Amino acid sequence: MLAKITVADYMTKRVVTLSKDSLVIDAIKTLLDHKITCAPVMDAQGHLLGVFSEKDSIKVFLKSVYNQDMGGKVGDYMTAGVISVDADASIVELAEKFDQSSVRSFPVFDDGKFVGIISRTDVLKALITLK
User: With left for phi above 0 and alpha for psi between -120 and 50, is residue 49 left, alpha or beta?
Assistant: First the structure.
């Protein structure tokens, strides 16, 4: 039954995104305000450039502690070259990716277009709905 459930069935479609030119302090506030662990970083054409996450925020924090500088832009700290998943992939395939990776969420693409994000929590929601 789980094998028939796709990523598209549980992904978040209305995603909070950031620009690479956003100030990191504003990006951190955005993550906190929306209670999310990461946000995709998009260019003006809607292409995914990377992801800005809690882990990247910790890098900003450490730099501010050591260098007394909380400045910088998201593009300076984001993780580029992120692994993504297809919207039509099965939730089981996704669970295997999570099992083999330390990331907490993946960008989702459909025919090369960014369409959402899916997290470990979303996989757990899929599991619970079947019980």
Answer: alpha
Tokens of 91: 């939730």
Domain count, the chain: 1
Beta carbons within 10 angstroms of residue 96's beta carbon: 12
44 token code pair: 């003006």
For 47-93, how does the pLDDT look when each residue is reduced to its tens digit (9 = 90+)? 999 999 999 998 888 877 777 766 789 999 999 988 899 999 999 99
Give the pair of three-digit tokens for residue 27.
Answer: 């990006």
Q: Give the predicted TM-score (pTM) of the model.
A: 0.84
Q: What is the 3-state secondary structure (H, E, C) of the chain?
A: CHHHCEHHHHCECCCCCEECCCEHHHHHHHHHHHCCCEEEEECCCCCEEEEEEHHHHHHHHHHHHHHCCCCCEHHHHCEECCCCEECCCEHHHHHHHHHCCCCCEEEEEECCEEEEEEEHHHHHHHHHHCC
Phi, psi dihedrals of residue 78, rounded to the nearest 5°: -60, 160
* Domain that residue 93 falls in: 2-129
Q: What is the CATH number of the domain that holds 47?
A: 3.10.580.10
